Every structure is written in structure tokens, then in C-alpha cells.
Amino acid sequence: MISNWIIMKRPAARRPGFIGMDPTVSGTAPLAGNPPAGAPSITSPLQPVYILGSGSPFSLILMGSNGGAFTASGLPGWLILFNGVLGGTPPAASVYQFTVTTTNASGSSSAIVTLEVLASHACRSNRARRFPAGTPG
């Protein structure tokens, strides 16, 4: 038997001191004691981008279909996987590739993640520019 669930956000109810969105949950997952609906697949973004100096460490929540536990191989030394979350602070701008795998009782699935870490100054060139009238910009 399968239970249904989904994760989305909806406008928060007006409560004193609360600003934001209330989470709601729905989707598909096996009920306790039942086997998974099938082999898992990874649904997380596989090409995340992080900007150095953004004020917080890199973090990516690993998500997959049909439940399952996550493992990772080939992680750079600064990146760790804990409870399905990849996190850490990259030391320099670079491109990092590693493999994530999700496994349940029905099978497993792997994917290569390509994380692009950009230097903070690389993003400053996107400022609005002024062009003389009639000049394409």
C-alpha cells in the first residue's frame, strides 16, 4: 500500500510574529512495513552553483523518489554528507564533480553532481549598463 505526499509552500496564516510560508507535505511513499514502490531515483539538482563569500556555507538537500538512503563518493575534502544534506565551505572557485547514490530495498540509482563554485567578483559584472539611445544593449 502507498501513502501520498507532496512538499510545497502556501501563504502563511496570519499569526502574530510569523512571517513567511507554511509548509505542506504530500507525494508518494510506502506505508510503514510495506516495500518501496520501486527502485529510487535522484531528483535533486545535479548542477548546483555556489558563490564564494555569499555569507553562508554551500548546502544541498539530496532528494529522491521512492525513499532510500544516500551515500556519496569522490567528495572534495571540504564537503560532507550528513542526513541527506551535502554541506561545507569551498576554499576556492573551481568545478567539483562527485557521485551520489540512493538505495532502497528495491534497488539503487547513482548520478554525477557537478558543483560550480564561482568567485564573488565574477558576479559583479552583471550590473546594469547604460547605452546611448538606439544602441543595442
Walk me through this protein's architecture.
The relative contact order is 0.21. This protein is 0% helix and 44% strand. It is elongated. It has strands at residues 2-4, 8-11, 21-24, 28-30, 41-42, 49-51, 58-61, 64-65, 69-73, 80-82, 85-88, 94-104, 107-118. It has 2 domains: 1-34, no CATH class; 35-121, Sandwich (Immunoglobulin-like). The chain has 137 residues and is mostly beta strands. Strands 6-13-12-9 form a 4-stranded mixed sheet, with no helix packed on it.
Q: Segments where pLDDT lies below 50 for 5+ residues?
A: 1-27, 124-129
Q: Major sheet, described briefly?
A: 4 strands, mixed
Quickly count the domains: 2
**Strand order, largest beta sheet:** 6-13-12-9
Labels describing this entry:
137 residues; mainly beta; Immunoglobulin-like; 2 domains; 4-stranded mixed sheet; 3-stranded antiparallel sheet; 44% strand; elongated; disordered N terminus
